[in-house]
Design brief:
- The chain is mainly alpha-helical and 153 residues long.
- It is 83% helix and 0% strand.
- It has helices spanning 3-27, 33-40, 50-79, 86-112, 116-152.
Length: 153
């Protein structure tokens, strides 16, 4: 696959996920939306916990949109072919923090109802948070080397 094809595909995918995430997050608290979804998938675990479910998934939706927003910011530097900038270090740090918060919210959700999938999500977001934090340190060193190198030339 050509480099340009991958870049265009990734950019479109990020944009679609970002804007779809915003729409879904905003529509979620509307009356009856969660009820229709639970009826469609025949979930009955949510009965009696409507408010808690809405709050949890609304917070998770906001955090997911924040992560996608940071990825979109970072992607702009890829398009400019200038990836090793301080802004990307900040974005990676934020994404790590958002991932840890998502893991904590998912862990809190297990109090309402426990599923193996939610425990897997907790693990995935802890790993994603750690990965983002470590990548932030790597990018920070790369930015320092780049600035040092630019001053040498």
């Amino acid at each position: 696959m050509k480099r340009e094809t991958v870049i265009v595909f990734t950019k479109c995918l990020l944009d679609i996920m970002f804007f779809a995430g915003i729409i879904v997050t905003l529509v979620l608290p509307l009356p009856g939306v969660v009820q229709k979804i639970t009826d469609f998938f025949d979930f009955h675990d949510f009965e009696g916990r409507y408010t808690e479910i809405i709050v949890i998934y609304f917070v998770l939706g906001i955090l997911a949109c924040l992560i996608l927003g940071e990825l979109r910011k970072m992607f702009r530097t890829v398009l400019k072919e200038d990836c090793f900038v301080k802004e990307n270090v900040v974005s990676l740090q934020r994404m790590g923090t958002y991932s840890f918060v998502i893991a904590a919210v998912c862990l809190l959700r297990t109090v309402l109802y426990m599923t193996i999938a939610m425990l897997v999500l907790v693990l995935v977001f802890i790993i994603a948070g750690l990965f983002s934090k470590v990548l932030a340190f790597v990018f920070d060193r790369a930015v320092a080397y780049k600035l040092e190198n630019d001053l040498t030339i």
